[in-house]
Amino acid sequence: MTIHGGDIYRNQVKMDFSVNTNPLGMPGRVKKALTEAVEESGNYPDIRAERLKEAVAKWGGFREEMLVFGNGASELLLAAVHAVKPGKILIPVPSFFGYEKAAEAAECEVVYWEMKPEENYCLTKNFLDSLTAEVDMVFLANPNNPVGNLLEPELLEKIAEKCLANGSLLVLDECFIELTGKEKSHSFVGKLDRYPNVVVLRAFTKVFAIPGVRLGYAVCEEAFAGQMKKHLPEWNLSIFAQKAGVAATEETGFVERSASYVAEERAYLEETLKKEGCFVYPGEADYLLFLVGKYDGCTGEKKEPERKAGGELLGREEERTLYERLLESGILIRDCRNFRGLSRGFYRIAVKSKEENRRFAEELHHVMEAGRIPDKFGEKKTQENTQTEEAENLQTEMAEAVEKVKSENIRAAAAEKVQSVNLHTGDYHGLEYVLPGDIEKRSFEIISEELAERGIILPEENELVIKRVIHTSADFSYADTMTFSKDAVAVAKRLLRQGADIVTDTNMALSGINKKVLQTFGGEAHCFMAEETVAREAKERQMTRAAVSMERAAGLGKPVIFVVGNAPTALVKLYEMIRENRFSPAFIIGVPVGFVNVEAAKELILKTDIPHIVNRGRKGGSNVAAAICNAILYELGREG
């Protein structure tokens, strides 16, 4: 069994329902552009892909600097992984196998969060509990593949917020979202300016039915886009891909027509599958996940087949699966048993053209009917487990579970409505009606109130920094453990006004820092962790990349503020360079989180004369490091 669908090269296929491309097929302009590209294939493609970048930016309403193009979305998954070099990746399952493939390239720990069949394999708010500070990277598909369900926008934004607070990169795969017809209400691209830790993936492959051309793109914050590009090969986009992409953006109304067509034909296929006794999982993409039985389609109870004299198998008809029976008729579907979290009997089909969908329905009925045999009472009883008592019981159980979830959702919605009424009648029950724009202001008011209740008075010069850290972490212990050198905030502000650069030890801290004020004074923010030369040198010298990055930063030739939120070895390397008089940092923000060498590394910095802000103890993180920087930068911005 193959990992992906579309294996028409090793099977005799008349209709391929295993790949999920636009059922309307390749648009005319795109086909014409590909034909014209043949004449130019004797030249190298544009290494900058300038026409494609300009066309897609205008088409999608993006800034050109936010775009990264790849040889399909799969190449961009790898580029994102190599740019971050994560220690731990979180993947909800079942989901697209390509995420696991990309995680393998990182040689890191992979954690799986299993979605539940009784919840129709939907992501729920319980997923938020798995987003810990140890997770460096999260992969999500919207809509999910193979299920086809969309993420609720409110839940998705909560996930993005928690990832931002933890310093985690969220890679959001939206490769099928245009074909759901709900791109405007469910896409995350319009929120990227507020979430520099989110990368959205899209692909021309699915929408414009050009999987053989290989063209995908990522939309993300400019700095991380630059990091991803460093991990892509030169000329990774062929002339064919670039020409096809430009032509695709000129297809006015094609995406809308496609989404409407998909919705109509999807409804037909869903009804067809249900008539044949299949359980179809709710979704809105151009594909459907369905279950044909507890064991497998067209199998019944598994028995060792009998043999004739000479060894020929008897009962082979009973062993063939739905996948095998349809393939004999030239129809290829996706056997989903190799999706993590799914098992035998799960299949996925794509929404195809009207004619292909009707032919599929006829053949499916024929295959199902052929699997039915008379029982001892003369009635027809199927060998397809969908018609067995086990399958019927399974469907009943699943239907009951779905109804239970719906009931719980209704109760939750009712409770929420009651609370809403209470808000407007003055009966708050502990809730406050706060407008979105006022939430941060109210949060800081609460922090001030609780500090007063605890009898904590913060030094005026450090107050904004500590409150910003408490706001980020919801942890009041920082009021006791944050340590500042003499006039630390004033020194940091003076350095920034003079154009000092910032160097971080993680790309997440880099992404979280507000760079507008920094750029106003001529400063830049850097992170060298993902550079290949740094990784190679670290391996050769048997050092961490964080330590080598600190040495690299020492060569910038200007004042540098070091912001360390993850790697204690970065602080140790800075201490060594200071002690040996090889380099003198302008300022150090040292707040790495963890258990190994973290506290000792922080104490080393406290021994130096370098201006610093350090959090004693084990707590900290990239989000805290970015919060400290932003508190100072915001104050500079207010001061003009």
TL;DR of this structure?
The protein is an alpha/beta fold and 640 residues long. The protein has four domains: 28-250, Aspartate Aminotransferase, domain 2 (3-Layer(aba) Sandwich), CATH 3.40.640; 256-387, Aspartate Aminotransferase, domain 1 (Alpha-Beta Complex), CATH 3.90.1150; 389-433, no CATH class; 437-639, 3-Layer(aba) Sandwich (Rossmann fold).
Question: Could you characterize what this model shows?
Answer:
With 640 residues, this protein is α/β, with parallel strands linked by helices. The protein folds into four domains: 28-250, Aspartate Aminotransferase, domain 2, CATH 3.40.640; 256-387, Alpha-Beta Complex (Aspartate Aminotransferase, domain 1), CATH 3.90.1150.10; 389-433, no CATH class; 437-639, Cobalamin biosynthesis CobH/CbiC, precorrin-8X methylmutase (Rossmann fold, 3-Layer(aba) Sandwich), CATH 3.40.50.10230. The strands form five sheets. Strands 2-8-7-6-5-3-4 form a seven-stranded mixed beta sheet, sandwiched between helices. The protein has a six-stranded mixed beta sheet with strand order 16-21-20-19-17-18, sandwiched between helices. Strands 9-10-13-12 form a four-stranded antiparallel beta sheet, covered by helices on one side. Strand 5 (137-141), helix 5 (153-166) and strand 6 (169-173) form a beta-alpha-beta unit. Helix 16 (463-473) crosses helix 25, helix 21 packs across helix 22 (545-554) and helix 23 packs parallel to helix 24. The chain is elongated, with a radius of gyration of 29 Å. The model is unreliable at 294-319, 373-388 and 413-430 (pLDDT under 50).
